[in-house]
């Protein structure tokens, strides 16, 4: 057809590819494997542009690697448990399962309309019992190995959503979803002991050169390893001891007060029955209502109060007041801090606010600090002063010496601390994988026997915005018998954090239909690691950390042979519109479905790849989309105009390049192959790869215009067109397939090998050199490319025309730019 009719060709090829199982992969393939994975989506209802970008990038990588001779695993599935489904149930009375499966069907259709080369036979959905059965099984392995445990914990609680929130879900003290101020609450909950892996998670970041530096830094900060000491302070007039964690034992002589976290167990004990009791109680309540983030934010005003007690500094016997303050967290270190206002900024502000003394114990090399005029804490190293036996020591050296001193006298010890907390996985929600645990009055906590899995989510429950899991109100679910002793028992009604489901899905893709095991060892050994993982940077911390933790734990259980899941990571930028993020509230959302309907999937894909390199944010542009559409039309017409003439021509017949135009086209073709290959392979610079393809198309049009039809070298044209189509195939797979057929090919273009370039073609054999005299162009000469400076100078000076120009002049200087220009500077 003369017209580029994407509406017809896109669905046609999608159907044929599926019927021919073009993207189906098997393990018994002699080619080397390549596992290309994009983060699977939450089935929220519709694909958004961020998805389109993510999956298009992944598809180019997958298609490229296939053409480069790899056996490529490229799967897709659904991160299908989670809160929105349950909110939909409460709001619209639709069951979460129905809502989810409907959304999956719709998004699968949308993904298919993009022509992404997935092996759909491996599709998984985490909410399907055949999947969550194994999520539960993995929970049991964690439990068996002491990595899952239950404990009472204060959690962020949203009174409106009536659910526990992760710290990251608390924004400015309010629930990320509904804006209600967050409170804190104590609940018995399940944890995964990720802290046991803190050091390995940190150390092994070094083994990931294929990860973006910024992601590794975020993970490092999240783990937050710090070196220091635990120093034991005694309470005055009591046997009670209070250990504090400090990274600055060198400042121990500068302590002027102590601060406990409001939740510290000693607080109640110390104030009970004292005049401080009531006010302390009020303070503690208020602190409970603040999130961790709010309490520690540097810009937040520090609040605190004296609680009537005193502690004794173990190194100098000084008596210091004990305070409580909201900036001290119970969950970190020991929940108690030694206040050193002269050398810690938070302490400095706190001391200034409440009139606490400031004592300088570290002097900088270049000035003398004066506590009464200091405007901020001095936090850098210096010389220790006023520090008893340590006075005069450089503070860095002092750290170790003070620790040794404390250890000798039993007053403290060297200590390493981590910010990383154990992973709270309990959710008081219905739409998640039930935690496979039974509580028996006689036997206590009893894991569900593996052969009884899955613990099925019951369908007939009622959804009310009460906050408790509807499972609690479902007697058929709750009431059971103890697997150990047979007496009546109760099931755990909390479900697992959906991050648990997504911590191992990449393993399930390797054997998605297995009934006996979560994943077959042989298959995992064949496919893992994921060679290229692609997703949003918003998952840089949690998902990636949890998946790494799971992989390490499973390695330790002997279930997988790798310690890291993702060899290379690409975090794509956002899709912006009018400079801002696309969002419903801003009303600036461009719907992928509309774009595909108007321009076709190939145009949408091409635009998204062309508009910016993958890691950068991309600004949506309607003109940009139009431009890509016009380009594809231009390719279409080019190939269409030649198709009948080149169809019968056999390639690889030894092209003879007779004319200059032939040589130029041949050179351009191979330069393009080289550039596109390197741009994809080394840098994922799809945008520059596409512009190189555009230049090739321009070159082909030039050839068509400059060389009369009967003199056109059709062998060369055929070769150029077919290579062009192959280069275009990963980006715009449908039009490539159609044009491929149009020039007479029978097999799919997506089964082609990626073209190699001919290095000899890249040497341009003749170049035009401009000759200037005092900056004015006086001559142009054709010379062999690559002439040396002296050679070029010789050639120029021997020209008759030049000699004429130089008559009667004095030659002062010859400036040579090889292959381009010779400038003669002369004077009368
Ligand atoms: C005295 C001191 C003097 C401190 C000084 C710092 C500078 P990182 O690096 O984050 O581990 N700290 C300890 N436990 C805390 C808690 N539960 N809540 C809030 N702050 C706590 O920081 C460790 C430092 O943070 C510790 O070292 C302690 O203050 C404080 F010139 O001790 B430092
Ligand atoms: Zn029992």
Roughly how many Å is the radius of gyration? 35 Å
Report the strand count: 34
Q: Low-confidence segments, ≥5 residues, pLDDT <50? A: none
Q: What is the 3D form?
A: globular
Name the beta content range. Answer: 15-25%
- Second-tier CATH architecture of the domain at 226-417: Alpha-Beta Complex
Ligand types: ligand ANZ, zinc ion
The helix content, as a percent range, equals 25-40%
Report the major sheet: 7 strands, mixed
Category from helices, strands and their pairing: alpha+beta
Distinct helical segment count: 26
CATH superfamily of the domain at 226-417: Valyl/Leucyl/Isoleucyl-tRNA synthetase, editing domain
CATH topology of the domain at 226-417: Isoleucyl-tRNA Synthetase, domain 2
Description:
With 828 residues, the protein is α+β, with helices and mostly antiparallel strands. Among the domains are: 140-193 and 422-498, no CATH class; 226-417, Valyl/Leucyl/Isoleucyl-tRNA synthetase, editing domain (Isoleucyl-tRNA Synthetase, domain 2); 621-762, Isoleucyl-tRNA Synthetase, Domain 1, CATH 1.10.730.10; 766-827, Ubiquitin-like (UB roll), CATH 3.10.20. It has 26 helices and 34 strands. The strands form ten sheets. Strands 10, 11, 12, 13, 14, 15 and 18 form a seven-stranded mixed sheet that branches. Strands 2-1-26-27 form a four-stranded parallel sheet, with helices on one face. Strand 21 (437-440) and strand 22 (444-447) form a beta hairpin. Helix 19 (601-610) packs across helix 20 and helix 21 (660-683) packs antiparallel against helix 22 (686-706). The protein binds ligand ANZ and zinc ion (ZN).
């Amino acid at each position: 057809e003369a017209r580029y009719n994407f509406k017809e060709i896109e669905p046609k090829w999608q159907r044929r590819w599926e019927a021919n199982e073009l993207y189906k992969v098997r393990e018994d393939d002699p080619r080397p494997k390549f596992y290309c994975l994009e983060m699977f989506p939450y089935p929220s209802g519709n694909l958004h542009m961020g998805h389109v970008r993510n999956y298009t990038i992944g598809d180019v990588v997958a298609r490229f690697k296939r053409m480069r001779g790899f056996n490529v695993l490229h799967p897709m599935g659904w991160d299908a448990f989670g809160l929105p489904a349950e909110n939909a149930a409460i709001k619209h009375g639709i069951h979460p399962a129905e809502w989810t499966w409907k959304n999956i069907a719709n998004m699968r259709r949308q993904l298919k309309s993009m022509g992404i080369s997935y092996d759909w036979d491996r599709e998984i959905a985490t909410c399907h019992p055949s999947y969550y059965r194994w999520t539960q099984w993995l929970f049991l392995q964690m439990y068996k190995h002491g990595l899952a445990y239950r404990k009472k914990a204060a959690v962020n609680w949203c009174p409106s959503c009536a659910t526990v929130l992760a710290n990251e879900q608390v924004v400015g003290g309010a629930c990320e979803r509904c804006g209600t101020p967050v409170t804190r609450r104590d609940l018995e909950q399940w944890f995964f002991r990720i802290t046991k892996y803190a050091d390995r998670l940190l150390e092994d970041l070094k083994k990931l050169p294929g990860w973006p530096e910024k992601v590794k830094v975020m993970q490092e900060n999240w783990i937050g390893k710090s070196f220091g000491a635990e120093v034991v302070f005694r309470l005055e007039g009591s046997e009670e001891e209070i250990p504090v964690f400090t990274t600055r034992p060198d400042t121990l002589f500068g302590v002027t007060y102590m601060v406990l976290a409001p939740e510290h167990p000693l607080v109640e004990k110390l104030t009970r029955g004292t005049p401080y009791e009531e006010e302390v109680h009020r303070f503690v309540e208020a602190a409970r209502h603040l999130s961790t983030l709010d309490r520690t934010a540097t810009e937040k005003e520090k609040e605190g109060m004296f609680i009537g007690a005193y502690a004794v500094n173990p190194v100098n016997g000084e008596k210091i007041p004990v305070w409580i303050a909201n900036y001290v967290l119970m969950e970190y270190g020991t929940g108690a801090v030694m206040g050193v206002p002269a050398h810690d900024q938070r302490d400095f502000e706190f001391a200034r606010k409440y009139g606490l003394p400031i004592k300088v114990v570290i002097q900088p090399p270049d000035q003398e600090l004066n506590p009464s005029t200091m405007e901020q804490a001095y936090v850098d190293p210096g010389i220790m002063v006023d520090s008893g036996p340590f006075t005069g020591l450089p503070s860095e050296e002092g750290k170790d010496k003070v620790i040794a001193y404390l250890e000798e006298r039993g007053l403290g010890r060297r200590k390493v601390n981590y910010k990383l907390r154990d992973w709270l996985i309990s959710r008081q929600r219905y739409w998640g994988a039930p935690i496979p645990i039974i509580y028996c009055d006689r036997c206590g906590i009893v894991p569900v026997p593996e052969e009884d899995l899955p613990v099925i989510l019951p369908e007939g429950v009622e959804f009310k915005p009460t906050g408790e899991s509807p499972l609690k109100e479902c007697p058929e679910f709750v009431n059971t018998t103890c697997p150990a002793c047979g007496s009546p028992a109760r099931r755990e009604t909390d479900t697992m954090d959906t991050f648990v489901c997504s911590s191992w899905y990449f393993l399930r893709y390797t054997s998605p239909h297995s009934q006996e095991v979560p994943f077959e060892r042989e298959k995992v050994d064949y496919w893992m690691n994921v060679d290229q993982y692609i997703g949003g940077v918003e998952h840089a911390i949690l998902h990636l950390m949890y998946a790494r933790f799971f992989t390490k734990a499973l390695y330790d259980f002997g279930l997988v042979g790798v310690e890291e899941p993702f060899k290379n990571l690409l975090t794509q930028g956002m899709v912006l519109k009018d400079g801002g993020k696309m969002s419903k509230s801003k009303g600036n959302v461009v719907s992928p479905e509309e774009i595909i309907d108007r321009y076709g999937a190939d145009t949408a894909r091409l635009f998204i790849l062309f508009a910016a390199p993958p890691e950068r944010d991309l600004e949506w542009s309607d003109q940009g989309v139009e431009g890509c559409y016009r380009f594809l039309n231009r390719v279409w017409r080019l190939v269409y105009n030649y198709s009948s003439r080149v169809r019968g021509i056999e390639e690889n017949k030894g092209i003879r390049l007779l004319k200059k135009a032939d040589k130029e086209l041949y050179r351009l073709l191979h330069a393009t192959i080289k550039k596109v290959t390197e741009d994809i392979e080394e840098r994922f610079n799809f945008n520059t790869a596409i512009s190189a393809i555009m230049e090739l198309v321009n070159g082909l049009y030039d050839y068509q215009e400059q060389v009369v039809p009967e003199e056109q070298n059709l062998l060369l044209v055929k070769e150029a067109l077919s290579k062009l189509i192959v280069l275009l195939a990963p980006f715009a797979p449908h039009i490539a397939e159609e044009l491929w057929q149009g020039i007479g090919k029978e097999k799919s273009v997506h089964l082609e090998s990626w073209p190699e370039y001919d290095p000899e073609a890249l040497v341009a054999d003749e170049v035009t050199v401009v000759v200037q005299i005092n900056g004015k162009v006086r001559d142009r000469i054709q010379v062999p490319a690559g002439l040396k400076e002296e050679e070029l100078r010789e050639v120029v000076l021997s020209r008759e025309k030049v000699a004429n120009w130089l008559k009667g002049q004095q030659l002062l200087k010859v400036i040579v730019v090889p292959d381009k220009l010779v400038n003669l500077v002369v004077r009368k």
